[in-house]
Amino acid sequence: MVKKGLVEDTYAEAFDGLYVRLLVTADDEETLKKASEDATATPSTVIGRLEGGIEKWLSEKETPDKRKGAILQLWKGLEKDKPLEGVVERFERELSYRIRQDILVKPFTAVFEALQDKPLGRMDMVERVGHCGDGYEWEERVYGRRMIAVPLMVPDFLIERYVGYARGISGGNFWIMCGTKQSVTEAGKAALEAIGRVEGVITPFDVCSAGSKTETKFPLIGPTTNHPYCPSLKEKLGRDSKVPDVVKYIPEIVINGVSMRAVKEAMKAGIEASLGVDGVVMVSAGNYGGKLGEHKIYLRELFR
Length: 304
Prior knowledge:
Layout: E1 11-25, H1 29-39, E2 51-58, E3 69-77, H2 84-103, E4 110-113, E5 121-124, E6 138-142, E7 145-150, E8 157-160, E9 162-178, H3 181-195, E10 201-202, E11 212-213, E12 224-225, H4 234-237, E13 252-257, H5 260-275, E14 280-284, E15 295-298
Parallel strand pairs: 4-8
Antiparallel strand pairs: 1-3, 1-4, 1-9, 1-15, 2-3, 5-9, 6-7, 7-8, 9-13, 9-14, 10-13, 11-12
């Protein structure tokens, strides 16, 4: 049972977003791991790119082509000043970069659509991925799927022709207020392991050392450091510092998920796991004063 006094009375500010759920397979574990990690390695939705993560690993019994696989989620933030069609167009372009540069180039890989819910829409992979075959690509029905075969020098790359996208929740988060360096590592590991047991979520940054804020002196960079919560600035900021006593480290874990239920379940599991580690003082969360995100996830309500 989590003591509510260890959970700050605050909320995480979360956002609506679009995501795809891809199933990647390969001939061997090393190639699969490299392709999956490369494709999801740069969480950068805050600068208009995609955010991604590995949801789970699959055995040969769980994939269409009977090879080991991984479920990846890739996310695009919605933009208030752009119609959905424009956001999807950008999403498709950015997604194609990840597939072409990080998966297709790995020998004997394949990509299948793995969306569990009814799609909001579908992207045709011919134009931006299939045409890597320079017009020599072809379509065939294998593994019960409609696949594009892209001829390569190490034959050949397979991708399902239509990839569905859906709406989910991004940016759920919590901060682990740590008094020791060791507790950063141990609490982060415990939290990620607990979150990994929740279906339908990813942690795009895993354990993140760089929580950010919206206001900045350097707009070309985008979001900059959340300086009131930087322990190394506590003495310099004086009363403006918001770092609690005895806290020396504040790692953040960000969670994206296919539903609000999944995000909340993952946040609860991660918080419970982290609070069981010696050296963790309390748990808080990051928000923007409720001005940006469509959703507020109150930490203490997770434990009612």
